[in-house]
Amino acid sequence: MNLKKIFIIAAMMLVILAVAAVSGCNEGSDDGPKATEKSADATDVPEVTEEPTAAPTEVPWQVDDQGRRLAGTDSGLTRDGTPKKYFTISFDDGITQDEHIIEIYMKYNFTSGTFFIDTGLFGVSWDWVGQTLGMPSLKHVRWTEAQIRAGIYDGYDVAVHTLGHMSLKDQKESVVIQQVQEDADNIYGITGIYPVGMAWPGGDTEYNDTTIKIVRDKTTIKFARATTTTNKFKLPKYWLKWTPTCSITAGNLLKLAEKFVAAEAEEDMLFYVWGHGYELDFYDSWDVLDQLIKMMTEADDIICVTNSEFYQLFKDEVPAYK
Length: 322
Ligand SMILES: [Zn+2]
Fold this sequence. Notes:
322 residues, 2 domains, two-stranded parallel ribbon, binds zinc ion
């Protein structure tokens, strides 16, 4: 990594920190200086201006044994032993609607999005998605590698959705490993951050016990998001079968969001929403995403995290698999 990139990353971090200081739901520390800033008077200026003086070398990335920066380790978040409410959201496939999703995120200074991408399918258009849904005009077009290198996902969490998005349940072990690990390697090559997680391509019908154990034992991937809706605000039971609260298309999504905002955390709580950008076009429900992010960022007691940040915070408390 060259010096210029370090400075760019440092500058981005400073902007995020500065923004976080005035935002209820943020990537910054949930204890210490941030908590003080949130309750500080508007006149308490010195407190707010303190953090941006941090030197670039203080960006706290953790690295693996090959020196690669690991996803989710730069949030500055720690846990202080008291129960908290966490919100995380992810979108699959690495498609062009993600740009609009990020526009909505930026409107609320929300930097906690996770995107699962398939680096073996750059630029591929899946016309069959719209045709299957009876809306031939519906686009499902993946970004090209050049577009992603140009910065579509900069500042967001990019994770594995396998190379080719194939069903993994009946594949040879070597194929599963290649599909997962090469996607991770490619993402590292593009972003400079090594992913720690994935979303199962095709959802819960396309993997099985054997697949999970291959990923657990033979790859570096630590979590894998499933597609079963729980309607609950619970921590995952297993990292490699991480069941979300609900889909972005769920009819009760905003009701769940209201319930989560109103909830008192007696134990750590997680509201996990997942989906695909094309679904927001299909249902014409962009306003639902807008409202969701507004609600999560405006709540003082909700900590927004990427999937990878949540994993890093709770990695010792949830088993990989049974
Ligand atoms: Zn997918």
